[in-house]
Amino acid sequence: MLKNPDVILGNPPYSKKTKDKFVILWTLITNLAIDMLNDGGILNFIHPKGWRGGGDTTKKLYRKMAVDNQMWYIEMHDIDDGKRMFNAATDFDLYVMEKTLPNFDGVPTLKVDTQIVDYEKQPHIIPAQDRNYIVSSAFDMVENLLAKPNEEKIHLIHKRSMYGSDKKHVQKEMDNEYKYPLVDTITQEEPKLRFTNDNTKGFFGSPKVIVNYGHGINAFIDETGDYGVTQFSFAILDDKKNFDNIKKAIESDAFKHLATCICGSSMKDINLTVMRDFRKDFWKMFI
Fold first, then answer.
1. Average pLDDT, whole number, for the chain?
2. Domain boundaries of the chain, sorted by first residue
3. Residue 113 DSSP SS3
4. Domain covering 7-133: architecture
5. Among 29, 87, 167, 238, which residue has the least CB neighbours within 10 Å?
6. 270: pLDDT confidence band, cut at 50, 70 and 90?
7. CATH of 155-286 given 3.40.50, 2.60.120, 3.10.450, 3.90.220
8. Where would I find the H helices in the chain?
9. What is the pLDDT of residues 190-231, one digit of tens each?
10. What is the pTM of this model?
């Protein structure tokens, strides 16, 4: 294998099944390919869109691909394209990236805006180097939802370490010790609960709108702050007078469509990295 090639083309394997789990491979291979490239070299890969979602597991990869280096072109393809082109139920991006030096003779290397073809086959030119993520479509709508420098952002809380369903202080059944309810998931009828014996880690005592963070988007109003939240839901804190409108907005068809446009992972229906940048009154666009 060449040590410092000028061009690397490929469709790396996405994952490998081991004895008890799937191991993601494409992120490791992409990192390695960038490191191997000669300065000024070109990486032309096809792999899942997760790199541009901005989540905790891929934000370093986004920076490496689109901030530290020059991302020239991204062509986005949804799961339908994956089925049609590769007979596989996966989304994917095709892109052209150039490995660039951070500076030349002490002068920072200027980056050029990225040309993009989104899920809807619409063209865009955006400053990927100035962002933390790139959505899949609805670019104009997302821009209108993002808080300006002088605007207050949505107060969104999601932290797995508080009440993860696998933590020792969380269990499925309620008893005399584990008596504090946690919203695990939310159906259209009612929330599915777990229980904890510790109500001091957060969420409790704060009125909020709780939103499902798995497959399906539903909301539950906790007006008195009686509930905590597991990793499968998140909370929006706001004035109580806005709770009904927030719930209505979250459950609207327009918001659910937007969620598919900004989703950073095939396993989640809402990209919280993007949503955390919404302005506080985002709900006004959906009711």
1. 91
2. 7-133, 155-286
3. coil
4. 3-Layer(aba) Sandwich (3.40)
5. 87
6. confident
7. 3.90.220
8. 26-36, 59-62, 79-86, 139-145, 160-163, 243-250, 253-262, 272-275
9. 899 999 999 999 999 999 999 997 768 999 999 999 999 999
10. 0.85
